[in-house]
Amino acid sequence: MTIASLKELGQSPKKVVFGGRKLFEELAKKHLSGERRVKLLEKWRERRQGLLFAVGQKHSKGNQNLRLAWVDGYLFLRITIGERNWVYAKVIRKVKRDRDKWKVLLARLMRAETTGDWFPYTVTLRRKEGKLYAFISFEEELPPVSITKAQGVIGLDLNAVPQHVAWAEASSDGNLVSHGAMPIPDLSGKPRKVRDYILWLTAWEIVRLAKEKGKAIALERLRHMPKGERGDGRPALRRKLRNWAYRSLLEKVKILAQREGIEVIEVSPAYTSVIGELKYAPQFLLDKDRAAALVIARRALGFEEKMPKHYERLLGDGEFLGYAIAYWEEQVEELRARKREEKNWWKRNAVRGSLEKAKKSLQLLRESVGGEPVGATYQLAPSQETADRWKEPVRGGPKRLQNGWQVAYAALVEPILGGLLGTFLP
Fold it and tell me: N or C: which end of the chain has fewer CB within 10 A?
């Protein structure tokens, strides 16, 4: 299936290595011989061939080919090796902690033996160092949802730089009740098990907070988390983003919330940060992340964010919009000059990224006043003429665009406040 998939995508299947690329490359070395080579070869064969997978079926007593069965009070794994032909492997597994899911599985298996109400479970059988290991997964029996958004919502905003979770508690009428932030230790360079452990602890703190306050949990529904690409000129930021396990943390929060009977609501992420930074950060003296969490909570409650009237008046002022447009024109020309002068290819890519963002802001503002067509070249006047042009009113008013908040951000944050709005902690 892997080879067929690669062929469909037009990729070369010659690069596929079953059994692990690292082991294959070790075995390909000429100097390996004797006992060390024998051990590596056996390990590689186990990786390639020592795997059996069977999906569970409820009508087949849980699993037809790899079935857990009680024999004389002991648990065995019945492995199908032919037509009505099986071998039995005794299951050796101790309970490791109070909340161990193994106890739940044993209890459900015993109940199913008595009542006949079977449940599907999937088994992966793996051979490792001459021993057989079974990995069993099954669907949990979850309690009914008892904490809903009728009591209010806690909105979560997950951030990679620095790694933390900002939260804001909103009452059922959409008013801010409390807020805070949970720092997350740096995950870069840590083994996978350590990373998972840290994320589970963070998810449990979030769910515990929601349970104590009796509030549902609201999350952003993100399909893709941009983490940069090689050659963008921002290697430090890219490393932080690539070590940010955003999706993994969200999944853990959902799982733990379901186990506690807490409703989880996913909302559209569109402009939550922009609205929070412009509307609620100055209103409640919040940082932009907690303000975004409040927008997420209000959106989960069904509230729509209207543009404040003072922003509408400001965006309807031609003189102000002329100032903002002139600011972005200067930024575009300055970034173009820096791009031409920069000799380092990597740094030039970083400047190119900033230039594209500046062009988008300028284009957005021009469209909002019915100005020049998209992509028109722009020659700047001398600095004195530019300063005078800031004072000239721009004819026409802003159009009723769906991205009005984005227009407000382009016109207000960078030109007026230099991007500092909403960055102060209360």
Answer: N
